[in-house]
Design a protein that fits this description.
The chain is mainly α. The chain has one domain. The chain is built from 6 helices and no strands. Helix 2 packs across helix 4. The radius of gyration is 18 Å and the shape is elongated. It starts with a helix and ends in a 7-residue tail after the last helix.
């Protein structure tokens, strides 16, 4: 019984979530042989999400405004940041980080609640990594549809 609980908890570990994301982005990167084909391809995610959606019935928006190429570049950038660390953040990231830190300073508990703070951020990071993984998988499937591979029958 203990082994079943351990394997379930291990499945939901941050390490495994990062590995699933990195694997999805690596698969996307290997599948997308010509990234420039993603330029100006609209993000029609409703059609794509219905086939990718798993246990969640929410209609979350996995893509921001832009095209598939922008999402491709974003996912690869995040993967590189996870694997290599953030080497030289650009000015926009610094500004976003300053705003986020300012907002969090009003919400976060003090030093006495570090465990709660850790769990709050761990849950948030796990949620973001799961959404990014789905985004990479959706982009990969969409690319396959666009170039006519992947067993799609029209």
């Amino acid at each position: 019984m203990m082994q079943i609980c351990d394997s379930y908890n291990q499945k939901n570990s941050l390490f495994n979530a990062m590995n699933r994301f990195i694997g999805a982005v690596n698969n996307m990167d290997q599948t997308v042989m010509v990234p420039s084909l993603l330029r100006d391809v609209p993000l029609d995610e409703e059609k794509d999400l219905s086939s990718v959606r798993t246990a969640s019935n929410s209609s979350s928006n996995y893509f921001q405004d832009g095209d598939m190429y922008a999402s491709y570049v974003q996912l690869k950038s995040i993967r590189n940041d996870i694997e290599w660390g953030v080497l030289q953040p650009d000015e926009r990231r610094k500004e976003k980080l300053a705003v986020t830190n300012h907002e969090l300073s009003h919400v976060e508990p003090d030093d006495e609640d570090l465990e709660k703070l850790f769990h709050f951020h761990l849950n948030g990071l796990h949620t973001v990594l799961s959404k990014l993984t789905r985004k990479a998988n959706t982009l990969t499937n969409r690319y396959k549809q666009e170039i006519g591979i992947g067993g799609c029958i029209h």
